[in-house]
Amino acid sequence: MDILQSVDPTSSLSSLSDPYRPSFFELFAQEQLRDLLAPALRYVLSVFTQRHPRYLLRIVNRFDELYALAMYAVERHYLKTWGERSTTEKTAAFSLLIAVHPSTGSSFAENFYGLRRRRRPGASTDRAKAAATTRPGQASYEALRNREISLSLLFLVGLPYIQSKAKDRWERMGGGVSEEQLFDNGEELQGRRAFQENEQRTKSQLVRLKEKSEDLFHKGYPYAASFYQLWLLIYHMRYLFGKSPYWRPWLRWMRVDVRRVSQDDYPNSVPILPPDLPHPLREPVPFFTSLIRSSPFIFFELLKYALPASIFFFKFLEWWYSSDNPRRRRGGGDGNGGAAPAQGGFGTNVPLFGPPSVLMPDKEGVLFHKEEGYQPPRVPTKMALAGGMHGPTNVASLLHNSCPLCGRTPVANPCMLPTGYVFCYTCAHAYVDEHGQCPVTRRKVIGGKDSIRRVLG
């Protein structure tokens, strides 16, 4: 078998052999979606916390715990509502709909990408697969039981929470920075260690045991994290080349694999509202009662549509506040379109600042009192005009394009001071270094020689 065909997710060879086996890239995409949800929600919450710290600061401080509880509710809904073998705990309005298709249990991210989890049959030969497709109880056998659902919740919610807290704890303890990197001097390092040894003698056994365990965790966490990633890499490679049906080790322990959703796994249209919902005008009380009873199902099912809508909304905000938006280039950021407002680019409260006023020359400056060595600007030959004729030299243009300190035309290696006047670099550097002010305006140059800017072009 060609290696490229086994790796390519669009390969026709793998599709013909098992069309419902997802590619590694599909599984990796849904895993990335789960990993990116927490940082995105944390960032949005931190932005709102800056405006309302009184109400949201406690939520931000306990974000990991609250996010784990929220994801537990979401993942439990998608695993139990569509994947449980029994339908006794389902909402009454949806019990018949779910009972017909009981084998589509999946996590939130897997459901978003059209994947599902199933209990893998004990016999996986081609002959057994052909017989299993015609067996009446096959759909019920593939449905997730309480054991698979509980273990799935443990690895979908519990494991990421433990990893997040462990990494946060390791970073709080200094991360990968050692004492040798903090103390350049060997004597300081030896003195610190001697001081720590003296403190150890006065501490209780419980405190010393706690410190040793923290030190062991700080040193062993990078190795444990590397071993964990290597362990997952082995399963990734085995799944990528078709050597194993499990792309995660805990799926192997549960004997649960991930499959693509077929047309028989879901009904043609899954309604968000209950099919037997009473009429709101004729029976308002039963209508609101049924709506409240079905609100958890409706909320969790709407998350599938809220995720792409939120992604589109954030991309729209990113474009709206970027320089690619033509309205922002015109200064009309108030959303009304057209030209910019009279007093502001983002609203009437933000004024538009015009160009700075020109700093006029001081009467004691070099324009009125020439420096020693100043030579009037001149050109070696007369300027050639059209037709080969010669005309007089324009003295005003020469004065405008000459160095005010030495009179050279054109300015050699031009540079500009913060006052806006241009000089030769050597002249300006020497003058500012000696006097610390602009030769023309006699204003103090803040920053001295570092404020000189070269003029290119």
TrEMBL record:
Keywords: Membrane, Metal-binding, Peroxisome, Protein transport, Transmembrane, Transmembrane helix, Transport, Zinc, Zinc-finger. GO terms for molecular function: ubiquitin-protein transferase activity; zinc ion binding. One of its GO terms (cellular component) is peroxisomal importomer complex. The keyword Secreted does not apply. It is found in: Peroxisome membrane. Residues 30-323 form the Pex N-terminal domain. It comes from the Eukaryota. SUPFAM superfamilies: RING/U-box. It is a multi-pass membrane protein. GO terms for biological process: protein import into peroxisome matrix, receptor recycling; protein monoubiquitination. It holds the Pfam family Pex2_Pex12. Signal peptide: none annotated. Pathway: Protein modification; protein ubiquitination. Gene3D superfamilies: Zinc/RING finger domain, C3HC4 (zinc finger). Belongs to the pex2/pex10/pex12 family. Component of the PEX2-PEX10-PEX12 retrotranslocation channel, composed of PEX2, PEX10 and PEX12. This is Peroxisome assembly protein 12. It comes from Tilletiaria anomala (strain ATCC 24038 / CBS 436.72 / UBC 951).
